[in-house]
Amino acid sequence: MKHPLSVAILLMASSCYSVASEAAMRSQGDWYGYWGWNNATYSDSDIHFEGDDYDFTLYNVSAKDHQTPFSIAQVFHSYLNPGRLTIPQYNWRFGYFVQDNWSVSLGWDHMKYVMVQDQTVTMTGVNDRDGFEKTNPAAEEVVLSGDFLTYEHTDGFNQISLETEAYLPVWQYGTDKDIALFAGAGAGIMYPKSNVKLMSGARNDEWHIAGYSTLVKIGVEANVWRGLFVRFIGKYGYVNMTDVLTTHSSSDRARQKVFYDEYIGAVGYRF
User: Fold this and answer.
1) Closest to 232 measured CA to CA, from 32, 31, 36
2) pLDDT of 17-29, one tens digit each?
3) What is 25-270's CATH number?
4) Domain residue ranges in the chain
């Protein structure tokens, strides 16, 4: 005979599951949107530069993101100021539930990528630019000083992606409140506004479709009141940019592949 406590636990679990099933909160036909902010980290990457008088590669270049300082004053000055909402690293997304607990969404991830200045890296290739000549293509070390290269995607390292998420409700604590786990994947295009100054040339700072991205993600979502929810997301992505603008000359380009981690906190509404 089963232990009475075991029977009670099974009955309670069955009851909770039944209530959750009857009161699906992410139903087919629902829409949602959210706004949030992110923190990102980047792998070291190789960057290939090519132009009329140079063709070289920099190896294992380090970079970081560029956070708007977080303080009480900055929260009201930048993060919650309608006129400055796009200054911090931010995210927005709109989605539609094609089935219960399964959605597709389109959104914008505004990350920022800043090459670490004055680092020493390995360089191969040739360079005939006055003051920066390198005639031997063999590997040598070079310091990425400001007069040689500044390389940023600070307005920003923008990703426009189509993503899908599958949800697993794990705890319902009210008729309109629950906590759910979710996982998903996606792909998109990279649309950076790159801020590059190469070998003391004119600074480039233009919007441009530079390549594509793929990603996977996991997260947790909490419904806090009716359709209002908060969400925490971790993304791991791969970016292949084959056409980064480096100067105003059409012949000057850079190519770069990089992996990234992105961590997002967001507030949204489902309707």
Assistant:
1) 36
2) 434 444 568 999 9
3) 2.40.160.20
4) 25-270
